[in-house]
Design brief:
Helix 8 packs across helix 12 and helix 13 runs antiparallel to helix 19. The protein has 20 helices and ten strands. The chain has three domains: 172 residues, Rossmann fold (3-Layer(aba) Sandwich), CATH 3.40.50; 258 residues, N-(1-d-carboxylethyl)-l-norvaline Dehydrogenase, domain 2 (Orthogonal Bundle), CATH 1.10.1040.10; 37 residues, 6-Phosphogluconate Dehydrogenase, domain 3 (Single alpha-helices involved in coiled-coils or other helix-helix interfaces). It starts with 6 loop residues before the first strand and ends with a strand. It is globular. The strands form two sheets. Strands 3-2-1-4-5-6-7 form a seven-stranded mixed beta sheet, sandwiched between helices. A three-stranded antiparallel beta sheet has the order 8-9-10. The protein is an alpha/beta fold. Bound molecules: NADPH dihydro-nicotinamide-adenine-dinucleotide phosphate and ribulose-5-phosphate. The site of NADPH dihydro-nicotinamide-adenine-dinucleotide phosphate has 23 residues, from helix 1, helix 4, strand 6 and helix 6.
Length: 487
């Protein structure tokens, strides 16, 4: 077979198939490969007229179909399957070739794979790709890592197939070396979890505390989507809430089992945050909320516990009047927006910490820029985050940006009222209340951490620092209670 394809895609399931079509529609000749050949045939039969495809039936044939330097993208199941596929293809590549893993790999795996392939002169590019099935076809947000040299070969193609931000800029950029791309994608997914949890809490409040029906809540979300909460996740929430189950005639949301699943990227974000020492409670609350929802044993055992005024669990308490509901919805909007800003701030702290730890040099403004379109968390306010980090690259936290700080200050009264109302009604809002606690914890002049330190010194002689002078100290708690200096 003569080498005629500019790019190749192996792994032609939901994502790979549409990514291959996107490359072809953008004018690139695309070599195709999939472990199960039927998928390759189906793609060509259904969409062969969309562009130039070179179907192949073995890894050798696939690699032979690629122009040099070869650029191939693997879009296969993360974990073991990715290792198997990369091992298989790496043996067929030559120095200068570019092997892209577009799946949701753990960034530590990507670092390991990149180092191994670098030894052989092959560029390994761990790339985050977000946008789901539709985004892969119409323009995803793409977060490549790997060497700068690999981006020179790959970047122009990625820029062609990526989503476009409202200002026309392609939603892709080189994030940094080795695992930077997959790290950024992991944090994207962590923020996605937090966003979804907050939206779910807003829905739950409007349903159970205000007594609104799903279709009415959809209208509230549509209104929010015309304002500062304008985002893909708010938009699809309204769509989901207006959908009726064909079998039962019930709101679709009422027939879906209330156990949220997860493939693992949110959990990775939290595990990594713990290792890096970055507080990301918004993401952690979202991961735990999913896990709690699926804990049938615990939920069954606790189902009979009394709620406020012994209301039946989950029952709405009657509908608010239209005026009350409208005012309550405004409060919830403030709370949702403020909590969202908090979880995005935590996401950026995480990117900064990862970048510093691994020496990636990730441009924080660029992360916001590539998330403005194509990805699941795309939202109007990402352009403001981009602007904030462009103006002040060293911004210590998004909360220090004057515009966001002002909005949080303006939101806080309604935010507190919302969390109080949730508590009164027995509606769990771990995301919103956790975000408020984070806000109060950061702005507090004094934290009870002082007491924690004293306790640690009491039971374990772990020492403490003082507010009034340098050094580390221990109090002889079991003896004369005199203070001694320990450094
Ligand atoms: N679905 C989504 O919305 C998103 C997915 N991703 C990531 O993109 C990647 C692809 O996702 P998706 O398209 O959903 O597909 P899946 O994660 O379901 O993976 C299916 C693909 O992997 C191949 N595969 C599985 N095991 C092996 C193996 N041992 N050897 C060779 N090939 C194997 C399958 O081949 P075969 O047909 O032979 O079974 C098929 O092509 C994943 O890493 C996922 O995390 C990223 C963003 C969004
Ligand atoms: O990567 C994605 C989007 O960017 C996927 O949608 C994400 O993996 C979904 O994760 P989970 O199944 O854990 O909810």
């Amino acid at each position: 077979m003569s080498a005629s394809a500019r790019i190749g895609v192996t792994g032609l399931a939901v994502m790979g198939r549409n990514l291959a079509r996107n490359f072809a529609r953008s004018g690139f000749t695309v070599a195709l490969h999939n472990r199960t050949e039927a998928r390759t045939r189906e793609l060509v039969e259904e969409f062969g007229d969309e562009g130039d495809f070179v179907p192949t039936s073995s890894p050798e044939e696939f690699v032979a179909a690629l122009e040099r330097p070869r650029c191939l993208v693997a879009m296969v199941k993360a974990g073991g399957p990715t290792d198997a596929v990369l091992d298989r293809f790496a043996g067929l590549l030559e120095p200068g070739d570019v092997l892209v893993d577009g799946g949701n790999a753990h960034f530590e795996d990507t670092r390991r794979r990149e180092a191994a392939l670098r030894e052989r002169g092959v560029h390994f590019v761990g790339t985050g790709i977000s946008g789901g099935e539709e985004g892969a076809l119409l323009g995803p947000s793409i977060m490549p890592g790997g060497s700068a040299e690999s981006y020179r070969a790959l970047g122009p193609m990625l820029e062609k197939i990526a989503a476009r931000a409202p200002d026309g800029t392609p939603c892709t950029a080189h994030m940094g070396p080795d695992g930077a791309g997959h790290f950024v994608k992991m944090v994207h997914n962590g923020i996605e979890y937090a966003d979804m949890q907050l939206i779910a809490e807003a829905y739950d409040l409007l349903r159970k505390a205000a007594g609104l029906a799903p279709a009415e809540i959809a209208e509230v979300f549509r209104g929010w989507n015309r304002g500062r909460l304008d985002s893909y996740l708010i938009e699809i929430t309204a769509e989901v809430l207006t959908h009726t189950d064909a079998d039962t005639g019930l709101p679709f949301v009422d027939v879906v089992a209330d156990r949220a699943e997860q493939k693992g990227t949110g959990r990775w974000t939290v595990q990594t945050a713990l290792d890096l020492g970055v507080p990301v409670p918004g993401i952690a609350q979202a991961v735990f909320a999913r896990s709690q929802s699926g804990h049938t044993r615990l939920r069954t055992a606790a189902a009979a516990l009394p709620g406020p005024e012994a209301a039946p669990s989950g029952a709405a308490r009657g509908r608010m009047t239209d005026g009350e509901a409208a005012r309550f919805a405004e409060q919830v909007e403030q709370s949702l927006y403020a909590s969202k800003v908090i979880s995005y701030a935590q996401g950026w702290d995480m990117v900064r910490a990862g970048s510093e730890e691994y020496g990636w040099g990730i441009d924080l403004a660029s992360v916001a820029a590539v998330w403005r379109a194509g990805c699941i968390i795309r939202a109007a306010f990402l352009d403001r985050i981009r602007a904030a980090f462009t103006e002040r690259p060293g911004l210590p936290t998004l909360l220090a940006d004057p515009a966001f700080a002002r909005e949080l200050g303006e939101a806080q009264d309604d935010w507190r009222r919302t969390v109080a109302a949730a508590t009164r009604h027995g509606v769990p809002v771990p995301g919103m209340s956790g975000a408020l606690a984070y806000y109060d914890g950061l702005r507090a002049a004094r934290l009870p951490a002082a007491l924690t330190q004293a306790q640690r010194d009491y039971f374990g002689a772990h020492t403490y620092r003082r507010t009034d002078r340098e050094g580390t100290f221990h109090t002889r708690w079991g003896g004369d209670r005199a203070e001694v200096r320990t450094d």
